[in-house]
Amino acid sequence: MSQVMADTDDERSGGDLRGRTAVLIGGGSGIGLRVAHRVVAAGGRVVLGGRTASRLSAAAKELGDAAEWCTVDTGDLDSLAAFFDGLAHVDHLFTTAASYRVGPMRELSAAEAASPFESKFWGQYHAVRLAAPKLAEDGSVVLMSGAASARPAGLAPAYVACNAAIEGLGRGLAVELAPVRVNVVSPGTVDGHLWSNRPDTVRQAAFEQYRRETLLGRPATEDEIAHAVVYLFTNTFTTGSTLYPDGGYTLR
Ligand SMILES: NC(=O)c1ccc[n+]([C@@H]2O[C@H](COP(=O)([O-])OP(=O)(O)OC[C@H]3O[C@@H](n4cnc5c(N)ncnc54)[C@H](OP(=O)(O)O)[C@@H]3O)[C@@H](O)[C@H]2O)c1
């Protein structure tokens, strides 16, 4: 491990992550894994969390010596507490881990409607709560939201509200945890791992709608979102912000 660290705010804002550890829960795939690649390329280390050991170990192998992993379920408080007990120090935290149902109010059961809040909102809330004692004063948290908060894509009011709540949580935590910086990334539709696991017809209809309805005419890549996350990790004067890497979706 490199002992060299970026010392000044200007070096850190320049994207230097030498000597820094980013904890990426959900980092075994998708956007989290792309963030891991960017952190390692910038000289940092990563700790990957997720529920599936084989996925995490394959991702860590891809990343090399700068990566460690540990299984964790963000829906289980004991599991989350054990995960953070095992960590000495956290410089940056980003949690893409979430499992939920999305759909119209008239169709979802009460438990399905609550699932984005249960998993995506409370999962991230408790991850930050348990990480807080170990967070470096000059470190940061990036919360994962989704641009549906600002412009609903389909019939999914509880999911829309959950994302809006996460953006509010980011502002509230920025105040409580300062000088630790807390920001939110709120992507539009991303052509990557999450959508590749949905039925072809559903994915194609969603991507077609996104091409029509966003200014840049296409979904994002996972790496474009990862770039925004690493910006939020490293810009030393950004806190309480929500960044929308959405190709202009929320403007149309
Ligand atoms: N992709 C998009 O279009 C898009 C757009 C806007 C927002 N988002 C948000 O991005 C997040 C998903 O990230 P992604 O797109 O990169 O998808 P992804 O590749 O499916 O990543 C989710 C990761 O989280 C892990 N995970 C799921 N539930 C977990 C739990 N309870 N505890 C621990 N780990 C868990 C999964 O691994 P295991 O199953 O092995 O645990 C997986 O590695 C969600 O919050 C989603 O709302 C995505």
From TrEMBL:
GO molecular function: oxidoreductase activity
Superkingdom as given in the UniProt entry: Bacteria
CDD domains for the chain: SDR_c
Record carries keyword Oxidoreductase: yes
Protein name as annotated: NADP-dependent 3-hydroxy acid dehydrogenase YdfG
Matching InterPro entries: NAD(P)-bd_dom_sf (IPR036291), SDR_DHRS6-like (IPR051122), SDR_fam (IPR002347)
Organism whose genome encodes this protein: Nocardia tenerifensis
Record family assignment: Belongs to the short-chain dehydrogenases/reductases (SDR) family.
Keywords, sorted A to Z: Oxidoreductase
